Amino acid sequence: MDFPLQKDIFISFFRTGMLGYGGGPATIPLVHKEVVETYGWMDDEEFSDILAIANTLPGPIMTKMAGYIGYQVGGKTGLVTALAASVLPTVVIMIALISVLINYREAPIVQGMTSAIAPVVGVMLFMLTFNFLRHSKKDLGWKVAIALSVVSLIAFELLGLHPAILIGALIIYALLKKSPSNNKKEGEAA
Fold first, then answer.
1. Chain centre distance of CA 169
2. I need a labelling partner for 71 at 20 to 30 A (CA). Which of 9, 83, 128, 147 fits?
3. How far apart are CA 77 and CA 157, in angstroms?
4. Among the residues of the chain, which ranges form H helices?
5. pLDDT greater than 70 at residue 121
6. Minimal CA–CA distance to 27: which of 19, 37, 36, 35?
7. CA quadruple 84, 85, 90, 91: dihedral, nearest 10
8. pLDDT tens digits, one per residue of 63-112
9. What is the dihedral of CA 136, 138, 142, 143, to 10 degrees?
10. Cα–Cα distances in Å, from 112 out to 17, 22, 30, 107, 130?
11. What local confidence, expressed as pLDDT, does residue 69 receive?
12. Which of 48, 19, 18, 56 shows the shortest CA–CA distance to 32?
């Protein structure tokens, strides 16, 4: 067993769990920062694929991503390490602070802290979306990326299509469509 790698897996997901106030959407940019930028375990394309697949499965997104990434990076031990590290902060905080939260949840300072966090999460999600859009331009081209965005928005907002069906359809499209980078590789091999 690679102890330094397991330590890095634990630290990255523990840090994400500690700072990911607000649940799933707040943790996604933090996981991206740790996995892609800090440790370089995968690139943006791999991360976006994992994010898309995790969104289609039931349950908390943080644990799904932690389990998959931990397994990819550190095998079965990495899976257990990442899951424990991502769940442990929440369990410890809930046990330690449950009585405080119950007694002071209506206090103005607590309400203000909760309200102040929402814009930060929004900016983090915007930056993650912007980075994915930048990468989709490279893989799909602007016309296809914008067309898929518009069709997705119409299907979701106007037709009321469930997000899981929409995500599944986009995954199928991505699997069936050859990206320009694959076409170049095939052309170079010929």
1. 19
2. 128
3. 42
4. 3-19, 24-32, 44-56, 61-104, 108-140, 142-153, 163-176, 180-189
5. yes
6. 19
7. 40
8. 889 999 999 999 999 999 999 998 888 788 778 777 776 777 788 887 78
9. -90
10. 22, 14, 23, 9, 28
11. 93
12. 48
Alpha-carbon span 59 to 126, nearest angstrom: 23
**Is the distance from CB of 78 to CB of 12 less than 8 angstroms?**
no
Closest alpha carbon to 6 in 85, 92, 60: 85
Q: For residue 20, which amino acid is it?
A: G
- Unique residue bearing structure tokens 């859009």: 133
Question: Which amino acid, one-letter code, is at 127?
Answer: M
Closest by Cα among 34, 94, 27, 90 to 64: 27
Q: Is the pTM of this model over 0.85?
A: no
Q: Which two tokens stand for residue 155?
A: 């299907």
DSSP helix/strand/coil, 22: coil
Tokens at 179, concatenated: 């990206």
The amino acid present at 7, given as its one-letter code, is: K
Closest CA to 37 of 131, 105, 126, 115: 131
Instruction: Give the integer Cα–Cα distance in Å for 160 and 104.
Output: 39
Q: How far is CA 94 from the centre of its chain?
A: 23
39 CB-near residues (< 8 Å, 6+ apart): 8, 12
Is residue 187 over pLDDT 60? Answer: no
